[in-house]
Design goal:
Blueprint: H1 3-10, H2 14-26, E1 29-30, H3 31-38, H4 42-54, E2 58-62, E3 70-74, H5 82-89
Antiparallel strand pairs: 1-3, 2-3
């Protein structure tokens, strides 16, 4: 997750953050699937998805198994170099 994405998500309401985490953990889901996994109301999930789409972190696509529904997934951002992040987060042995 890029810094701008993290900043955008930090400004969202808790319901939108939960929906983001549900999608992050479970992968692409329909709105009904998100409602079941998050235990939020359908209206709350709809609002959260609108907020997430507004900052372009969630993408809406057609759910081919049932064209009446949409499939939501997290947008793949630019790749993050996790090795350099891990090195920065881990203090060196002699840094006491």
């Amino acid at each position: 997750m890029s810094d701008s994405t993290a900043e955008g998500i930090a400004d969202l309401p808790p319901s939108a953050k939960l929906v983001y985490k549900v999608l992050e953990y479970n992968g692409p889901l329909t709105q009904k699937g998100i409602v079941e996994e998050s235990m939020l109301s359908a209206r709350t999930v709809r609002y959260a998805l609108e907020r997430l789409e507004a900052i372009a972190v969630v993408d809406e696509d057609v759910y081919f198994a049932d064209a009446r529904q949409n499939l939501y997934e997290i947008v793949d951002g630019p790749s993050v170099d996790t090795e350099s992040d891990a090195e920065e987060a881990t203090p060196a042995v002699g840094d006491d």
